[in-house]
Design goal:
alpha+beta, 33% strand, 28% helix
Amino acid sequence: MKFLHKVFEAKRKQIIEVEIDKPTKVKFMTGKEMKAYRMGKTHTFFGGLFEESPVRFVVPFDSNWNVVVEKGTHAAPLDVHASCALLPPNGLVLTTIAVDAPPEMRLNAQDVEASELDRLSAEMSMAARNEG
């Protein structure tokens, strides 16, 4: 399998942002999982199939994080171009959820997003009250 690969030494809450030009799988994994991936063994990862760009991943713990952008399958290769960058922590940025994520994960992400928007709305209204 062909893929694009980049490694980042990232701290908790930093954001890895990936720009893709076509729908494809984007995986975020530690070094141990990357080794298993390269050997064709079972591996775990964050991410999945993404149709839109940018893909944002909020790093859950300090580690060397591998970003893998798959270039299709062996039978159906894709000409994918991607770029990625490590961004500083930002409380306003939420993790992008993959199209092929389990339904319960998508619902959980919507709940988190809704509660985050409620919190931000409350903070903004408090700030507006305190300025006067």
